[in-house]
Design a protein that fits this description.
The chain contains 5 helices and 3 strands; from the N terminus they run ααβααββα. 12% of the residues are buried. Strands 1-3-2 form a 3-stranded antiparallel β-sheet. The chain is α+β, with helices and mostly antiparallel strands and 105 residues long. Helices cover 70% and strands 13% of the residues. A hairpin with a 2-residue loop joins strand 2 and strand 3.
Length: 105
């Protein structure tokens, strides 16, 4: 979980994941989408692979990257406990705002 959270902490890696959410991509395609040099993209891809967030396969001379959703699903399960806590607080806030609007009339 720590490796996943660390990997998600970088905006370039989140951009890579957003691209891979929609379709598989080569390292070159990912590099074209990011404002950093190709060696930097390679380092980001290595971090994402080590965290288990992406996998790579050979397609002739190309390396094609794809998203692995399992680590994100595990993170979502962990966050569910906290989401429930905040949801009840947000529901209470919504109730108070609705009461305030009613009293203002």
């Amino acid at each position: 979980m720590d490796a996943v959270l660390q990997a998600l902490g970088d905006p370039s890696r989140r951009t890579v994941l957003a691209i891979l959410r929609d379709h598989d991509a080569t390292a070159g395609e990912l590099a074209d989408a990011l404002p950093i040099a190709r060696p930097g993209v390679s380092r980001h891809l290595r971090v994402l692979r080590e965290a288990g967030l992406v996998e790579v396969r050979q397609d002739a001379q190309r390396r094609v990257y794809s998203l692995r959703p399992e680590p994100l699903m595990a993170l979502d399960d962990w966050l569910a406990e906290y989401r429930g806590l905040w949801q009840s607080r947000l529901d209470a806030l919504h109730t108070e705002i609705a009461r305030g609007k009613k009293d203002a009339r």
